[in-house]
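Friendly challenge for the regulars: who can give me the structure tokens for this chain first? No prize, just bragging rights.
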Amino acid sequence: MTGRLEGKVAIVTGAASGIGKATVALFRQEGATVIAADVTAGEGVLAADAGTEADVVRLVELATGEHGGLDIFFANAGISGGLASIFEQSPEDWQEILRVNLIGPFLAIKHAAPAMKARGGGSIIATASVAGLRAGAGGPAYSASKSGVISLVEVAATQLCGANIRVNAICPGLIETGMTRGIYDMARSSGREDMIGHLNPMKRGGEPVEIAQAALFLASDAASYVNGHALVVDGGLSCSHPHYRQEYGRTSF
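First reply, four minutes later:
Bragging rights claimed.
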């Protein structure tokens, strides 16, 4: 099935690579006009800092001024901040991670919602993470920021009551992107590529397009009654506490 976003206007942040890039391609394939934005400009990608209000306002004004309105905003931009412990991070580290990962989606909601209301409704999607569900999947500031995103979409969905604007989050597990490249490179260089994603029941890492497909669902009319929800896409990682699992039909690990 194609054309699920025919006639829709979308903004995608963090669009230069990984999940954002895959989503831009998929949204366009499904008929949407997409404004792709990233902190670094590239081919077909506008330079914009998702955590800077003026830049978010500019993206929304571009959608409404040049394309007639805004239907979808995928607040996907994010940074990891590394795996340093609470005792190794500074307030400045936290401020920057929260600025991009949490204030960015807040700004997207704040400025996209009025434009969507004028259009009769819309869909706002924010990238959270399984790290926002429980400990063990990211650094402290990153995890706190993604937990905040989950709470933010719940609050925003409630505050947009009656506006026909849905606000949801996606919680990816381990996905091969620029942010996780170091993990993948380390595993491959040490000959332990088979350990990537070994703690989830699918026993593999995810691909950016698998998260893009989730974003497409939430952006489309197929998710017309999905609101205030955090959709987990992690191969089953978060369905239990991580541990070494025996493969089905085998008697040893």
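The two ends are 40 Å apart (CA to CA). DSSP finds six helices and seven strands in the chain. Your move, everyone else.
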